[in-house]
Amino acid sequence: MRILVTYPPLVGKGSPMLTQNRQFQWMHRPSYLFPCVPASAATYLRSLGHDTGWLDGITERLDPAGYLARLEAFRPDLVAMETKTPVVGQHEAWIDRIRARIPGVRTVLFGDHAAALPDACMERSRADAVLTGGDYDFSLASLVSHLETGSALGSGIVLKAPDGTWTSTGPYRPEGDLEALPFIDRRLTRAHLYFEKWLKRVPFLWTMAGRDCPWGRCTFCSWTTLYPKFRVVGPERLLSEMESLVQEHGAREIFDDTGCLPGGAWLEHLCEGMIAHHMAERILFDCNFRFDGFTERNVGLMKRAGFRKIIVGIESASQRTLDVLHKRLTPEQVLEGARLAASAGLELQLTLMVGFPWETREDVLQTLGLARRLLNRGWAHHLQATVVVPYPGTPLYDLCRRNGWLRVGAEAYERYDMAEPVCDPIDMDAEEVVRMAARCYRLLLHPRFVGHTLLRIRRLEDLDYISRGVRAIWSHIRDFSQIRS
Question: Taking the model in full, what pTM does it have?
């Protein structure tokens, strides 16, 4: 079967942050994050003997005509595309256009919105199938096998019949063996086109050892709908993939985008393997982690292994908010984890969120104060700020609906795009909430933080990194300068 995994071009308020994003946003200055599991799906299907293609109209900046020309040249039998809440309407329209251009083609929707609302996706669109789990590789392989041979469908697949009705195989159960998957084919998936604004070296490539987070209970996270149970490959497998990226693609920086890299013995074994392979002399390694995962022992191992940037979530300095979000974290743990990481020379990137409907202006200022303290002490090196978006399928969305906290319609999905607050704040207007996100980024312009940053300059790549960082900061301030409609 000829199968195309694809991202059609989208129209909106900037560059769409769709791929590999747990939160959607339109940005003035783009980053193109490598979609690890869709790329694994394309690779896996090719390894099974299918003629598989990859077409990302967003990363390649294709206009609709150019995209359709490329799609028609491939002539797929099946088209699979990832969607997210703010752009699901655009993907529904793209399905119509694709079916009109290629009669008989089958179309599949996947992603956290499709997983949360599969029946709505089937009712509103002409999609032939919806995947409700995050293992797109295993689910697409099961669907294709069923279409070709009539084999039994795996769990978490909704399939439409010729008469327009549909049936579901029930809730998704993650059962596939991640260790059995081939390494992602970086040439098939054009991995060289993807990048992060905060990268330090190129080639910069992604891995994703785990799906998705060992904690997996944060009530705001849209990917908890995709991965009901955490699974991770062994540290030896990740190390082998890193070696492959260095030797075959010349990787100089690798980011593992597991929701949170496991700690404990798993992390120690990974670090010991990286040290034995002299990875610190060959690459920089970045990952997501938790503040309470740092220990006196592991921070030194991580530094020796080659870890550089570690993304850690504060979200809020309000203990009430952390409890509502089920973060299992305290501000005191944030401070202690940051101190430990900084003592070993690890670079922390903080994540902050503004616009929780129960938070006051004072709560937000408290969060800003905690972030400022970490940055100005030299315990954190960067941050990212977002406006809260309660996505369908998350406990936060259900909580907001029950309490009447949504300031936009529950199904006004195109407005769930972070260009405005979705929730009603207590004592701030919507414009002030957006500007609070901009204030978070302005913390990076504080003279004390700038002084710490300049003192860390050691080589020319550091100057280039700072220069690009300044441009990125101003673009993020612009993203949140006002509500965009």
Answer: 0.98
